[in-house]
Design brief:
Arc Repressor Mutant, subunit A, 10 helices, four-stranded antiparallel sheet, seven-stranded antiparallel sheet
Amino acid sequence: MSSTVQPLFSPPAGIELVEIWPGGPLDGIVSRMTGYRETARRHIRMREPASLTVPLILSFGEPFAIGLGRPPTEADRIASFAAGLYAGPVLIESFGASACLQIDFSPLGARRFFRMPMHELADRTILLDDVLGNAGLALRERLGNMPDWESRFALAVDFVSSRIGAGKTPSAEVREVFSGIDASGGRAPVSRLAARAGWSRKHLAERFRAEIGLGPKSVARIVRFNRALAAARTGNCNWAGIAADCGYADQAHLTREFQNLAGLTPAAWRAGLA
């Protein structure tokens, strides 16, 4: 685990954010842990584009409202939960009194922790006790009673480390194909990667859904889109150039993917970074 808890630079007003990047036995399984606390009573709206993160939210404040691909309603309020991969934007609302510790699992590491077929978690949120039982509820209670983020992160690292030993790792073939997708920025043909792994495209799709949560084409689509987001964050707003560099047919293709995976036009997404 990183030796110190790192506050995030320039968090939004009224929000406390801190992070760690665990290493050691959690390397490749957990990409990040984040502490989140709202410090001012106000209505907060957030939007998360599609990503390859499988989050576990351990809440010790008021519930969030979570909408998959749409604005959330009162019926969507949920406190502690896990969420699988989703090929679309996630809209989040809170009201100034939420606090949580979020554990972000990698797509190849999530199955070892959750010990379930990952398609059962994809495209949805599931209550904490339905995925971790009483152990998860006890963890949440202990986190809420701790005095600082450093203590909470240490407990979370210990909890995750204690679970992953008995979990199943993705198959060598799934790992190989995922690596090929990631290394190519989502541009490598899935049929070629499947043939290299010695599987049919149908069997590969079935194994990806079971071991990661989405099929390989959906995973490749999200990888490519996140490469485009990363390029745009560097200050390069030549959308036609980004589209070409990331393997889109043209700028219109990239714009459609923004609408599908972020729920915004490229210009609106970029304006939200300001």
